[in-house]
Amino acid sequence: METVATSRDRACKEVWFNTSEAEVSPAFSPLYELSKRTLGELITLRRLDAPCTLRKLILGPFRSNLNPIGIMAADWVAQAILFWAVRGFRDIVVTVNPLTYVLFPLRETMRSLYFRWFSRRESKC
Description:
By secondary structure, the chain is α/β, with parallel strands linked by helices. It has helices at 7-12, 30-46, 74-86, 98-118, and strands spanning 14-20, 53-59, 91-94. Strands 1-2-3 form a 3-stranded parallel beta sheet, sandwiched between helices. Helix 3 links the parallel strand 2 (53-59) and strand 3.
């Protein structure tokens, strides 16, 4: 984040975070759920004064070497991510669970408003 010095750098640099639909719905593992929710909250808080674009990927169960029983094909998930990223979305939801498409934006909006209202800005004195 320290390498972002000019407005051109700010426009060109992005950091992508991979979270999960466990941010808004229960997961099989309580530790997994807690880690993803905590990561999601930290990203939302950091967005308040981030020197570059922070994108959050909220992914459902896709097939991979780590999850061979996933529901979605990894190629399809990658295409969906790029489809929304090209259109400028910062929160990209790709899942088969329709509740996530409703609950995530509501929760993210409320969390963002809370952080804006109750976070102190650093004074530059």
